[in-house]
Structures are given as structure tokens and as C-alpha cells.
């Protein structure tokens, strides 16, 4: 008896129940449900798929604009670079205005004998040293960037000779001269216009270059609706080589800005002589006031 009870306990403890037989339809329904629950191939969603929508293309709200290509001026000639409400803006380029040997001698002499110094300017109340050396000649002082260069009537004799030659060739007369010395490629002058009230309306400025070639760049003033954005304005590039004369006339100072940018490769020194005509500051205006602002003041 004990052996029978022991066998019964073993069988009861380890015996497995047979699976219950389900109705044939249930298996079919179960398989159908599991198949329909699987996502469709290539779908990232589970469950019923939404009906596909047609893709609509919308035109951009603003027209696509191209940046105008930079224009390069290298050949001698007269160039009307723009026509606008302010008038016609003109450049006159004269490469080889001075013969090479004469230019070499003048460059060495001016580099050694002019009273070069570094001017301190002010921007938004902060003082900074100009990244070049300058000196000024004229019977009146000249103010720009909130800093004044004192009158200096002691013209170097060579500068008197050069002024006469520039006046004869350009047909303009000048009573003042701003000299710039770019010692290397790191020296520069930023974007600006020579439109101080003391220069008068539509000033003519003659720029004579001696020494290493530097690029003189111009960019057109954007229209008022651009809110000072220069992205799409016209641009001009003028390489100024040893002995070259460049004359800016008409509305150039009203409608364009110019600069000599830094160049990050070897550049030797360059002397730039900018002949101009200075008038007494308009009465009631701070020295260095821009002409376009002065014209609107009561």
C-alpha cells in the first residue's frame, strides 16, 4: 500500500494537464487578429493607417535674390558707376600717372620725410588707434570719427609739386591733403564715405597711390527699405598700383562707401595721398558732422 501511495503522490505532483481543445473558429479568429495587428511593411505606425494626404508646394513668401557679382575696374578710363536721385557717381582711373622711376623716388622721400603719426578716433564713446599712420596739410583743421587734425600750412615741397600735377590732370582744385601710410597688409581703413559737411556737396577727391598695390573697394548704399543691409548691393574692386591716380566725383560720396581692407599675406608699405577741398564748418554744426545729416538740420 505504501508503494501505491508513493506512486500516486509522485504522479500527482509532476503530471501535466493536457491542453484544452478549443473550437476551430476560435483559432481562426485568433490568427486573424494577430495578423491584422501587425503594421504594414514600411510603416512606422501601429494600428489602422491614416489615409495618405496630397503634398502641396507653396511659393516662398519672399522672392529669391542673387548677390550681384563684384565688378572689377583695372583699365584706365572714366566710369559712371551709378545714376540716382543724388546724381551721377563717377570714377576716373589713371594707372601710370607717375612714371615708375619717378614714383620710386617720391615714395622713398615721402615715406622718410613726412610727419607720420597714429591718430586716435572715437566710436560709440570708445577710443581706438587707427590701424595706419596719417598726417594732414591744409589751412583749416579736419575732423572725422570725432577726432580733429590741426591745420598745417607747412606743405612739403614735393607735395606742392604733386598737387599741381593732380590739379592739371583732373581739372579740379584742392586746398588740403590727407596722407595715409599703410605699413603692411594689417593696416587698413574701414567702410566709410568722405561726406563730412566741411567737404561740401558732391566733393571731388583725388587719390594718388605710391608703393605696394592695395585693393580699393566700393559698395553702394542700400535703399531705405533695406534697413542698412548691404547683402545685395553693388560692389566694385579697384586694385591701386604704384603711381596710380584715382578720382572720385559727383555723387560718389553720397551713394557709395569705400574701404581698404586688411590683407593676410605679405604686403609692403603704401603711401596714399588724398587731395580734397576743405571749407569752414557750417555754422551751428559740430565739426565732423555728416553732410546728409547737416542738410536736414534746421
From TrEMBL:
Residues 1-52, 279-298 are annotated as: Disordered. It comes from the Eukaryota. This is Alpha-ketoglutarate-dependent dioxygenase alkB homolog 3. The gene is alkbh3. Residues 173-279 form the Fe2OG dioxygenase domain. The keyword Cell membrane does not apply. It comes from Salarias fasciatus (Jewelled blenny). GO terms for cellular component: mitochondrion; nucleoplasm. Its cofactor is Fe(2+). The keyword Nucleus applies. It is found in: Cytoplasm; Nucleus. Its main location: cytoplasm. GO terms for biological process: DNA alkylation repair. InterPro entries: AlkB-like (IPR027450), AlkB-like_sf (IPR037151), ALKBH3 (IPR032854), Oxoglu/Fe-dep_dioxygenase_dom (IPR005123). Keywords: Cytoplasm, Dioxygenase, DNA damage, DNA repair, Hydroxylation, Iron, Metal-binding, Nucleus, Oxidation, Oxidoreductase, Ubl conjugation. Interacts with the ASCC complex composed of ASCC1, ASCC2 and ASCC3. Interacts directly with ASCC3, and is thereby recruited to the ASCC complex. Interacts with OTUD4; the interaction is direct. Interacts with USP7 and USP9X. Belongs to the alkB family. GO terms for molecular function: broad specificity oxidative DNA demethylase activity; metal ion binding; mRNA N1-methyladenosine dioxygenase activity. Dioxygenase that mediates demethylation of DNA and RNA containing 1-methyladenosine (m1A). Repairs alkylated DNA containing 1-methyladenosine (m1A) and 3-methylcytosine (m3C) by oxidative demethylation. Has a strong preference for single-stranded DNA. Able to process alkylated m3C within double-stranded regions via its interaction with ASCC3, which promotes DNA unwinding to generate single-stranded substrate needed for ALKBH3. Can repair exocyclic 3,N4-ethenocytosine adducs in single-stranded DNA. Also acts on RNA. It catalyses: an N(1)-methyladenosine in mRNA + 2-oxoglutarate + O2 = an adenosine in mRNA + formaldehyde + succinate + CO2; a methylated nucleobase within DNA + 2-oxoglutarate + O2 = a nucleobase within DNA + formaldehyde + succinate + CO2; an N(3)-methyl-2'-deoxycytidine in single-stranded DNA + 2-oxoglutarate + O2 = a 2'-deoxycytidine in single-stranded DNA + formaldehyde + succinate + CO2 + H(+); a 3,N(4)-etheno-2'-deoxycytidine in single-stranded DNA + 2-oxoglutarate + O2 + H2O = a 2'-deoxycytidine in single-stranded DNA + glyoxal + succinate + CO2. Its EC number is 1.14.11.33, 1.14.11.54.
Amino acid at each position: 500500500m505504501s508503494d501505491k501511495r508513493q506512486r500516486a503522490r509522485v504522479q500527482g505532483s509532476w503530471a501535466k494537464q493536457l491542453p484544452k481543445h478549443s473550437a476551430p473558429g476560435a483559432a481562426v479568429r485568433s490568427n486573424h487578429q494577430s495578423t491584422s495587428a501587425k503594421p504594414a511593411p514600411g510603416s512606422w505606425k501601429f494600428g489602422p493607417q491614416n489615409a495618405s494626404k496630397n503634398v502641396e508646394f507653396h511659393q516662398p513668401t519672399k522672392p529669391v535674390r542673387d548677390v550681384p557679382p563684384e565688378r572689377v575696374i583695372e583699365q584706365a578710363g572714366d566710369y559712371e558707376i551709378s545714376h540716382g536721385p543724388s546724381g551721377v557717381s563717377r570714377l576716373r582711373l589713371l594707372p601710370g600717372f607717375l612714371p615708375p622711376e619717378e614714383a620710386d623716388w617720391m615714395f622713398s622721400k615721402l615715406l622718410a620725410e613726412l610727419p607720420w603719426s597714429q591718430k586716435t578716433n572715437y566710436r560709440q564713446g570708445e577710443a581706438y588707434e587707427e590701424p595706419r599712420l596719417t598726417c594732414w596739410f591744409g589751412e583749416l583743421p579736419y575732423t572725422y570719427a570725432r577726432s580733429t587734425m590741426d591745420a598745417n600750412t607747412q606743405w612739403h615741397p614735393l607735395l606742392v609739386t604733386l598737387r599741381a600735377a593732380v590739379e592739371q590732370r583732373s581739372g579740379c582744385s584742392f586746398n588740403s591733403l590727407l596722407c595715409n601710410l599703410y605699413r603692411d597688409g594689417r593696416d587698413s581703413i574701414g567702410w566709410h564715405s568722405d561726406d563730412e559737411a566741411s567737404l561740401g556737396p558732391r566733393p571731388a577727391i583725388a587719390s594718388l597711390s605710391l608703393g605696394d598695390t592695395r585693393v580699393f573697394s566700393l559698395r553702394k548704399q542700400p535703399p531705405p527699405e533695406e534697413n542698412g543691409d548691404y547683402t545685395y548691393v553693388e560692389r566694385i574692386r579697384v586694385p591701386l598700383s604704384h603711381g596710380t591716380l584715382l578720382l572720385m566725383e559727383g555723387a560718389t560720396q553720397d551713394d557709395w562707401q569705400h574701404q581698404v581692407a586688411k590683407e593676410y599675406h605679405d604686403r609692403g608699405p603704401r603711401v596714399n595721398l588724398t587731395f580734397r577741398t576743405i571749407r569752414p564748418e557750417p555754422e551751428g554744426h559740430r565739426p565732423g558732422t555728416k553732410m546728409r545729416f547737416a542738410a536736414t538740420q534746421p
